[in-house]
Amino acid sequence: MADWQSPAELQADAAAFNNFMHALLGLYIWEFITSLDFDWQFISRKKPFKWPLTFYFAGRYCLLFALIGIAVALNVKTEIDCQGLYTFNQVFGNAAVGLASINLSIRTMAVWSQNKYLVAFLVVVILVHWSFLLHGILLKAAWIQGACVITYTDNQILAISFIYSMIFDFVVLCLTGWKLAFPANGRSKLIDLIFSDGLIYFLIAFLANLLATIFMLLNLNAVMSIIANVPAAIASTIVACRVVRRLTNFASHSAEVFTSTAHSAVAFRPPPNSTSHHISMKKGDSVRIQMNSLVNRPDGEYDAAGRVTQGDEFDPEAQAISDEFKKPPY
Length: 330
Fold this sequence. Notes:
CATH architecture of the largest domain: Up-down Bundle
Number of helices: 8
CATH topology of the largest domain: Rhopdopsin 7-helix transmembrane proteins
Helix content: 55-70%
């Protein structure tokens, strides 16, 4: 069995950690660039900005800044302010973890139709989560033997933070799964979308935090205790951002389809209380004249789609709209 506290093992683990962080940075940059067109649609105002997207953009860019800071800390060769650098990394890294949970929670709130009791419960859970994350920022680092080294950190607070994140994601997963499994008004395409891949995203976030918690509780050595923290933050942020993008794109597509269909129905519907007759007249064998005449029909009325309706008055705004086309908060 390996001696996890031996100098040789610590050196090998540190080298593995260094390479692993660079690989994760490359992975996140690839994910970031491939989805940059979504960000540009809102930056260029091609799509209207909605307030829940604030958490999406904040989490996405906080993690990018944290990973860049980690890369700087691992590659710097001249003495720098290690305390400031690691505080920067910890602030943005913990913020990314908290914002990922907020993005998943907003999705759950939308699924539950903004139920006030559920919203209040999740807000309290989020505030407690952030209190642990902010406590985890308290660490000390110094320049020792040509590298930035963390000299003090509260592992107990870090462990509590990840355990809480794991439980938080599990609660959100259960709430979302329950509502989607037993919808009040049947399954729509939106429900199918969330159920088919949304729950997978929730599950990935939960498993990522579970893995980080296991390594932290094992406490093999200083390196192995935190080696899964960054992967957990990256996995949670990626899946949370994908949840937001897929739901936003689905809402935009549904709105466009509904608008196009509605315009077509109004443009080509026959006039109310009227019908059309074709009168043909022949002159010889070569001339054929066709004309339409409109005759009032007192008994029949039409809706915006051209269907005959009953009743004395027609209200075009009273037509039912499928729940499938109701836009979620994104």
